[in-house]
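For reproducibility, we list the full input for the S-adenosylmethionine complex.
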Amino acid sequence: MQHGHVSVLHTEVLALLAPRPGETVLDCTLGLGGHATTFLNVTAPDGLLIGLDADSVNLTEARKRLQPYGSRLETHCMNFRDALTVLTHPVDIVFADLGLSSPHLDDPERGFTFRTNAPLDMRYDRSTGESAAELLLSSSVEQITKVLREFGEIQRSHQLAKELHLHFHSDTRSLSDWKTDDVVQCVEKVFTYRAPKVLPQVFQALRIAVNDELGAVTSLLDTLPRLLNPGGRVGIISYHSLEDRLVKHAFRTLSTPEIDERTGQVSTAASWELVTRKAVTPSAQELEGNPRSRSAKFRVLRRVPRA
Ligand SMILES: C[S@@+](CC[C@H](N)C(=O)[O-])C[C@H]1O[C@@H](n2cnc3c(N)ncnc32)[C@H](O)[C@@H]1O
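The corresponding predicted structure, in tokenized form, follows.
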């Protein structure tokens, strides 16, 4: 299948991360290689791009597209939470464009959208972990409520969780027979005419839980000091407030100097500095051309170079 994905905040990523010839870039979410192509062009002639993606379908397509860059490209099919395991040296740029790509939504077999009836999967990496159907089949009402409330910020989470639990325990089908429409029916039953508004939040909540998206971002943020060279930059594009909050908080913590409680003076200067004080969002022109970019928020942090 020919995939399409329009890279988000392209100009801003280039301007704020400012890749230079010869630098090494870790692209944690290679996707179809849109941002990676730019990184490879700007770091020519000898810069290296290490691209990761948990989704083997996207990774195969990206490898094909980026083949002309030869040995300047290294790819790994893996979760970026384990990025440290494939790096032999710290890099100059860490970039992550979180979440799902357009092919995920467009592929009727993946179950990421409520718009087409499909197997209820939602995993980026289909070789491991529980699908959304398995998650609903193995969770208690309380656990489902927590997912809906925390990751979807859904009102009446408990009521919907009860409905989903009842529905998913009402018959014994084989796993592949559970479909996205099973979730849609439950949402429609509980929310009636308000269902169209709630469905995106429900699917988002399940996707975040299935892929442990917040856990993966937290691990990535925790390992930044070991991933980046002095003078290096990290840029993260997030698409929902829960992720953006994690990024904002981690960047703020890293860039805050230590204060001596006794004197109130700076005791240790921060070794990181914020490049973006506020999240950067798409321009009106980008929004018009790519409505899927509407929730994007981009933050950049720089590791202070050694004196
Ligand atoms: C928004 S797309 C990236 C698009 C890419 N920047 C481009 O321009 O083509 C996000 C990609 O990250 C992958 N992904 C999401 N979470 C991941 C994780 N924890 N580890 C590795 N890859 C992940 C998805 O499979 C998807 O291909």
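The radius of gyration is 21 Å. The chain has a mean pLDDT of 95. Both points were considered when choosing residues for closer inspection.
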